[in-house]
Amino acid sequence: MFKSLTRAINIAARLTNKTATASSTRALEPLVTSALCPPNSASSRPFTRSIWMMCNNGASSGYRPSLLTPKGVLPSVSCGCGGLHTEGDKAFAEFLSDEIKEEKKIQKSKTLPKMSGGWELELNGTEAKLIRSISGDRVTVTFNINNSIPPNMEEEPEQGQKSAENEPEIVSTPNFVVEVIKQSAKHALVFDCHFPEDEIAHGEGEEESDIFAIREVSFQPEGDAEWKETSYTLNTDSLDWALYDHLMDFLADRGVDNTFADELIELSTALEHQEYIKFLEELSGFIKCN
Amino acid sequence: MGVLLRNLQNVVPLRRARLRKDVETLRHILGIQKFDLGLICVDNARIQRINNVYRKKNVPTDVLSFPFYEDLRPGKLPCSMHRDDFNLGDIFLGVEYIMQQCQQTDQDFNGTLTVVTAHGICHLLGYRHDTAEEWNEMLRKESYILSEFNRLTGSHLEPLTKKCTRDV
């Protein structure tokens, strides 16, 4: 129960950076309200107010020396680090410890899945780079697992039906950039790709989007050089479909096809989960001042 | 106006540009360029699911057509006035199934894909093969389309109706 609640809040929190649809925001609202906004909840109001009353030494409240020091209000536990430690922090650390155990239990493997096709993986925090050379062409695929989990469009299960089994699986579907560099060319051909949302939703209907799609294509300076906004960018929204198909075939010839896209989702999901656990451990250490 | 092509599977490597070009040739032969049609490439699992839902046949197959106009007289194009009605419907191609059949019979995959698509388009245009009469009518149409296709492209394709059994 805790796991599902925290994962839901986790997603809700991540969603704040994204444009969530009205339905998913509504579905998560009760969780967000109760867990993330304690100052507005009815149960926490008297406590907040009591601190204010005890700390207020204005003319109307009178002078009450024994109640004015914050020491008596915020229960603290000293660890010698000089920072604040409250009973709340202690409960938070215990909660995180349970959460980390649960997440490690459901982690499929400690190692990341391998991509077929001879791709080499380079990691830099939440950013992953897959590199492959094919007959003189160098292909680089870059993605970032931050904000890569789409809002879950499924309806919440009926109360009483909630269990670990019917909890929706979290799948990371990041946007990814494919860079193709030819030995003879000055610039890299860059494809901005994404996973269309109706394909990754878990609905029963027959979704009819490609597994992945190209959003934009442009020529850019090679490597990490600054992105040139002045380069012409081909938007695929209003593109001739035959040209679009040739671009997709071009990518497929260089190993970026539906199989690659499916494997990228697996890799990204495993990496996202790994980074989530790492974050929880870091958070736990921060709370406990380890 | 055109062919909406979707590839929802990862079992068979698909050449999208080639498939589109061949379907555009078929559309030209049939004079249906002003009509949209959807071409969705799926694997065995998905086409089996669709076949089970819509035909109560829980087996994979090569092609399933979903006409936009369900009561067209064979060979008569719809007389649409509204832009949204310039649509013939969707064809689901079981590309994994087609590939398996090609491997068993040692036939060219891309050519077979064109033959199967021509069959699917005929269904969108009202052709059926429930009776012997319908069967012959559809075979005549497919033969005409593919002979024109062969003439234009130098291929040697034969109609699907000729090969298949009556329960397809």
UniProtKB/TrEMBL annotation, chain A:
Keywords: Acetylation, Adaptive immunity, Apoptosis, Cell membrane, Complement pathway, Cytoplasm, DNA damage, Immunity, Innate immunity, Membrane, Mitochondrion, mRNA processing, mRNA splicing, Nucleus, Phosphoprotein, Secreted, Transcription, Transcription regulation, Transit peptide. It comes from the Eukaryota. GO terms for cellular component: extracellular region; mitochondrial matrix; nucleolus; plasma membrane. Residues 146-167 are annotated as: Disordered. Coiled coil: none annotated. Signal peptide: none annotated. SUPFAM superfamilies: Mitochondrial glycoprotein MAM33-like. It holds the Pfam family MAM33. It is found in: Cell membrane; Cytoplasm; Mitochondrion matrix; Nucleus, Nucleolus. It is a peripheral membrane protein. GO terms for biological process: apoptotic process; complement activation, classical pathway; cytosolic ribosome assembly; DNA damage response; innate immune response; mRNA processing; RNA splicing. Belongs to the MAM33 family. This is Complement component 1 Q subcomponent-binding protein, mitochondrial. It comes from Chanos chanos. The lineage of its organism: Eukaryota, Metazoa, Chordata, Craniata, Vertebrata.
TrEMBL record, chain B:
The keyword Membrane does not apply. Pfam families: YbeY (PF02130). GO terms for molecular function: endonuclease activity; metal ion binding; metalloendopeptidase activity. Its cofactor is Zn(2+). Gene3D superfamilies: Metalloproteases ('zincins'), catalytic domain. One of its GO terms (biological process) is rRNA processing. InterPro entries: MetalPrtase_cat_dom_sf_prd (IPR023091), YbeY (IPR002036), YbeY_CS (IPR020549). Keywords: Endonuclease, Hydrolase, Metal-binding, Nuclease, Zinc. Belongs to the endoribonuclease YbeY family. This is Endoribonuclease YbeY isoform X1. It comes from Chanos chanos.
